[in-house]
Amino acid sequence: MAYSRNSVNKVMLVGHVGAKPEVRYTNSGSAVANFNLATNEQWVDSDGNRQDRTDWHRVVAWRQQAEFCEKYIDKGQLLYVEGKLQTRSWEDKNGAKRYMTEVIADTITTLGGRGDAGSGSQQPSNAAEPEPEDELDDLPF
Asked: pTM of this prediction?
């Protein structure tokens, strides 16, 4: 069995924004936006009943993308988000290890919907640049 040295971490979501993005700034002045995106799935079960399921995804956008989110993204808006999954961990106030998996956005495109700010997209010029760990530690969320 051959193993590949390359791997893929790619996420593509189309969903509605749960609330206006929260935008904060790190000590070094980098903007960071956080928001939740809801994706919906509908199907008919074996008894013929319609079923609905909503999944919530935490999205993080940095720098120019964060500023784009602050200006143009609102609750209920339909978005296309492309990025990668990243899991971070920390210890809570009781000393228990906690984990959170987030979508680190490379591309955000408005598709319309409630709060439609028109169609637009934001792709940062430095999308491949990793975030410094010390900047992540400064964030209160």
From this structure: 0.74
Residue range(s) defining the domain that contains residue 65: 11-43+50-115
**Which residues does residue 119 pair with via DSSP β-bridges, in sequence order?**
none
Residue 113 pLDDT level (bands cut at 50, 70, 90): low
> Which is it for strands 11-17 and 22-25: parallel, antiparallel or unpaired?
unpaired
120 located within any domain: no
Count of structural domains within the chain? 1
Percent helix, strand and coil across the chain, each to the nearest 5: 10, 50, 40
Provide the token pair at 10. Answer: 């790619």
pLDDT at residue 132 in the model: 47
How many residues can be counted in the chain?
A: 141
